[in-house]
Amino acid sequence: MKEILIVGSGAREHSLVWKARQSSSVGNIYCAPGNPGIAEIAECIPIKATNVEQLAKFAKQQKIDLTIVGPEDPLAFGIVDHFKSQGLRIFGPSQQAAQIESSKIFAKNLMDEADLPTARYKTFKPKEQGEAEDYIECEEIPIVVKQDGLAAGKGAVVAESKSEAKKVAKEFLDIGIPIIIEEFLEGYEVSLIALCNGTQYFPLILSQDHKKAYDGDKGPNTGGLGVYAPLNFIGAEEAMKLYKIVTDPTLRALANKGIHFRGILYSNVMITKNGPKILEHNARFGDPECQTILPLYDGDLINLIENVLSSDFDQIPFKWNGKFGHCVVLASRGYPSNPETGKIIEGIEDAIKIPGVLIFQAGTKIENGKLVTSGGRVLCTVGIGDTLQEAAKRSYYAASKINFDGKHIRTDIGKQGLKFCNYDSEVDIV
Question: 336: cis peptide before it, omega within 30°?
Fold first, then answer.
């Protein structure tokens, strides 16, 4: 039986542990550092996700057969390189390959070099504030200002005025962070997630994230407040066309640079009237995409990852269960800028009893014997159903059962998919 280590502490990692637990080849599962929800189904180890050396030491001591990395920070810290240097088996991209997420400038330059479809942009270094302001002055509004580097999904600001764009640019540049200023794209977003080894990959079903803090896609960007999958308005043929347009050339472009990408490539794509445009690439499972998609896959997660690592792609069963997943994230008041914490959480026991509902914890901890909030995204409710309507009804019903002071949810998750439920027509990608 295989010993498994999953790195991370969020709802994404909770769902990875949950799915790995169903594998017939798995013995013990460890999660570092984990959370109270994960602790119910795995052994949580008090090692930070970014403490690469201690994690490798633990993996050696426990004879871990496979480590799966959840969040982006340890990848940027070089966890995969360090584990491999210690002879440890790990699923995730190298530090060099993870630049596709850890450096937005690297990613945009890669898209440029490979002639990949993306928004028109220009990069600016900290000493180029004047040039950045001149550039903004010549561009149309709204305009997007992005910081280089990792920002937990919150490093992009859609400025509605030139003065706002200049203010945001100045804030980033003043603290020494390079920026990208790019055109604002109109359309709808799609998440493409693939398990990759070099230029080969296994595509997951498409999903749609909701990044803005408030209903109607208003407010600041967040790490994601809800997802649904699959997308009922994009057929299987059109979905594969998207992967051919986005994932294939991205992996080839990396290979041409001598970078072998082994791990998760998760691409945010905007479907515009002029076709798909890549918003950004990520080097790990999306959150909350992961916890929405995994319950729809009837295959064995550990076998899937092992087959990808061994490049046995023809051995991977395409085993989707034909159901829909709908995820609602319960966030703290003040998220994403200044989330309140320490609020007692009640009602999980009632919510988990609802048929077709899964609960995955994120920003939670035990304090004085009570489960309390400890972060911006506290937990998520995932509804599984034969239709999107059924899945949405279940996840929202479960969300209504769980309470804490300052609970915030979006009430329009899946609105685009629900709108298409009464139509048979599918959307053409190109």
Answer: yes
What is the distance between the alpha carbons of residues 326 and 359, in angstroms, rounded to a whole number?
A: 12
For residue 80, give the nearest of 221, 384, 284 by alpha carbon: 284
Residues in the chain, overall count: 430
Q: Residues 6 or more apart from 141 whose CB is under 8 A from it?
A: 159, 160, 161, 162, 165, 184
Count Cβ atoms within 10 A of the Cβ of residue 398 and give its class: 0-12 exposed, 13-18 middle, 19 or more buried.
buried
Q: What are phi and psi of 427, to 5 degrees?
A: -90, 130
Walk me through the domains of the chain, giving residue ranges and CATH numbers: 2-92 (3.40.50.20), 121-183 (3.30.1490.20), 188-419 (3.30.470.20)
For 179-261, where are the E strands, in sequence order? Answer: 179-183, 188-197, 200-203, 208-209, 212-214, 218-221, 226-229
Per-residue pLDDT tens over the stretch 281-340: 999 999 999 999 999 999 999 999 999 999 999 988 889 999 999 999 999 999 999 999
Beta bridge partners of 366: 371
Distance CA 38, CA 20 (A): 12
Query: How does residue 198 score in pLDDT terms, banded at 50, 70 and 90?
Result: very high
pLDDT of 255-295, one tens digit each?
999 999 999 999 999 999 999 999 999 999 999 999 999 99
Each residue's pLDDT tens digit, 24-69: 999 999 999 999 999 999 999 999 999 999 999 999 999 999 999 9
3-state DSSP percent of the chain in helix, strand and coil, to 5? 30, 30, 40
Residue 68 near residue 23, CB atoms below 8 Å: no
Mean pLDDT of the chain: 95
